[in-house]
Amino acid sequence: MAGNDNIRKLEEWLAQPTLDAPVRAELTALYDKYMENPNDAEVQAAINDRYYTEMVFGTAGMRGVMGAGPNRISIHTIRKISQGYAEHIVASAVAAGRSGPSVVIAHDNRKDSGLYAFESACVFAANGVKAYLYDVLSATPLLSFSVRRLGTDGGVVVTASHNNKDYNGYKIYDHFGCQCMPDEAEEVAARIAGVDIWTGPKTNAEKYGKRADSAADRIRIAADTDPLIEIVPGEIIDEYIAAVIAESKQRGACRGLQAVYTPLNGAGNKLVRRILEEAGIGGLHVVKEQEDPDPNFTTCPIPNPEKPEALGLALGLARDLAADGDAPDIVFGTDPDADRLGAMVRHDGDYTRLSGNQVGVLIFDYIIRMREDAGTMPDSPVFITTIVSTPLTSAMAAKHSIETRKVLTGFKNIGDQMNRLEAAGEEDRYIFGFEESCGYLSGRYARDKDSQNAALLICEAAGLLKREGKTLVDRLEEVYSEYGYFIDGLEELVRPGEAGMHEIAAIMSRLREDDMLGAFSVGVSTRVDYLSGERADYGEGAPVLSKVTGIPSSDVIEFELKDGCSVLARPSGTEPKLKFYYTGVGSSEAEAEARIADMKAEMGSVIK
User: Fold this and answer.
1) CA 300 to chain centre
2) Which residue of 5, 23, 112, 331 shows the fewest CB atoms closer than 10 Å?
3) Distance, CA of 177 to CA of 412 (rounded, Å)
4) How many Å from the N-terminal Cα to the C-terminal Cα in the chain?
């Protein structure tokens, strides 16, 4: 039954005179259903899920289902978050002796993203923080670039990245254009927690039109009226595009390439097309149904290029073109905020999907070959990747005398290493960073993954190979033949709600028990617990214990097996799921995939 505390909280929300009209309508309908039948289990669950907790602002920002209540994203949670972040920016500027604190705000195509960006700007302005606001769909990497270019104290992207249409979110960036690192994110979270959702936020939003007016109109009115709100100049976008194109490793490399592209109704459409057209791509076919913004993602319920089904329409278009004798060489897509890229390649008469790791391997291989051939490889080059990404790239780096730095999951950790290089005056050493979840960056102009950058480089690599009569799959096979087959597999346990949170915690606890060492038939060579920072190496005698260095504590556990394979488990920082990352290693693809199947079965037995 719905708890009395949660019913009381719902009634308190309904009693607020400033409650947003759509939020009031949703809560009123829910409350009326409860009053009609207090024993309705579905209504009870809906109330409890909205009120059993407050949405938490974590190290990756805040992301959740849109709707009414403290455990939902709405105007009220956006104002609360913005107030806390505004207070942090003002305090940081005062402590550093800086005047005129400022922030850049971007948004994707999701329902109410433009409205939330507008609301954020109004809160910042009311707190004396200059808000540079994009009035068009704007990619996450563009936001990172804009923070650095405009020299602001921080940045905000209103997006739920690749989640479904019910979600939205709020990511914050520091003055480097990097997502805030844990210490700063915790400071922001503490300030947000101290803001009363009704009386805390300062805002001038009511001065710039009504809730029913379009967000774009209200943004323009605010920019014309408030000296602390300014639309980002269009030349910033031009400069960003120029910075991406400057990452080309061989101009004209994709001149003869034919490609199919889908922006999945998001922010990448105009950016990717401009970049590839300026790069001289032979032909770029865009999926019509997914070209324009669509907050409902009508033709792609899960707009995540990591998932094969997200490229379904693009694949269909490519096959239709092939049937007409004009077969595209590559198919790729970007997610709604245009920071991730997924790809497929035409090979042996049809299209082969590339995993995020494989795209990373191919781009890294292309960068190495082009820079070595051109003599532009820096002294002591640095490659940065994550602990869950394929170890194949580390082997490639070692052969070419490139330093590999491994970090925790999340591109902010790659960005942090880039900042360390910059602080040491060694930024030129950075040549590439990637994470297996389809995130790539070769340039130093931003501090977040960039699908526009990835699109340019993967198309260039494919174009050069096409001239040699090869495909990206052919090149991948050549890499495997040199280093061995490293095949990756991913499993996700989705466990929403309070019960799911406890279940995920219980599974992670179970994986830390000593009898887990007997769960794998081939035996465990190393277990690394990134939460305790303890590494245990198992040989014939007692385990050799050591401490993990250079990587902060995180709820992650990894098993390296005696045959070179591995499995790593970590709860998602943004979604109610537990992720298992498998690496199968063998002398053939079939052998490596068989080992992944074995590890999944063994891990499944443990979880059951």
Assistant:
1) 18
2) 5
3) 9
4) 29
**Is pLDDT at 573 greater than 80 in this prediction?**
no
List the one residue out of 159, 177, 105, 147 whose CA is nearest residue 415.
177
Please check whether residue 223 is in contact with residue 229, taking contact to mean a CB–CB distance below 8 angstroms.
yes
Kindly give, in sequence order, each residue whose CB lies less than 8 Å from that of residue 465, ignoring residues fewer than 6 positions away. 471, 472, 474, 475
| Position 71 pLDDT exceeds 90 | yes
- pTM for this structure? 0.92
Catalytic position from the list 161, 389, 437, 554: 161
462-483 burial by CB neighbour count: b if 16+ within 10 A, else e?
Answer: bbbbbeeeebbbebbeebbeeb
Which of 14-18, 290-294, 541-545 is least confident?
541-545
pLDDT of residue 500: 86
Domains of the chain: 1-52 (no CATH), 59-232 (3.40.120.10), 240-479 (3.40.120.10), 485-607 (3.30.310.50)
Give the pairing of strands 534-537 and 544-547. Answer: antiparallel
- pLDDT at residue 2 in the model: 53
Residue type, 474: D
Name which of 316, 427, 317 is nearest 382 in CA terms. 427
Distances (CA, A) of 528 to 36, 360, 525: 54, 24, 10
Query: Quick one: which of 559, 579, 557 has its CA closest to 567?
Result: 559
Q: Give the model's pLDDT for residue 60.
A: 74
Contacts (Cβ under 8 Å, ≥6 apart) of 92: 101, 153
For residue 159, pLDDT over 70 is answered with yes
Token pair belonging to 55: 């949405």
Does residue 451 carry a catalytic annotation? no
Q: Residue 415: helix, strand or coil by DSSP?
A: helix
> What is the CB-side half-sphere exposure of residue 602 using CA atoms within 13 A?
21
pLDDT, position 1: 45
* pLDDT tens-digit map of 346-387: 999 999 999 999 999 999 999 999 999 999 999 999 999 999
Give the CA angle between residues 446, 451, 454 to the nearest 5°. Answer: 95
| Residues 537-549, mean pLDDT to the nearest whole number | 88
Q: In this structure, which amino acid lies at residue 314?
A: A
Cβ count within 10 A of residue 76: 22
Edge-to-edge strands, sheet with 544-547: 485-494, 577-586, 566-571, 557-561, 524-529, 534-537, 544-547
**Spatial contact of 31 and 19, defined as CB atoms under 8 Å apart:** no
Task: State how far the Cα of 215 lies from the Cα of 183, in Å rounded to an integer.
Answer: 33
Tens of pLDDT, residues 326-347: 999 999 999 999 999 999 999 9
Across 460-556, the runs of DSSP E, i.e. the strands, are 485-494, 524-529, 534-537, 544-547
CB atoms within 10 A of CB 241: 18
Cα separation, 258 vs 416, whole angstroms? 36
282 contacts: CB under 8 Å, gap ≥ 6: 254, 255, 256, 257, 258, 463
d(CA 193, CA 155): 20
Q: Indicate the SS3 state at residue 337.
A: coil
Model confidence band, residue 3 (pLDDT cutoffs 50, 70, 90): low
- What pLDDT is stored for residue 23 in this prediction? 95
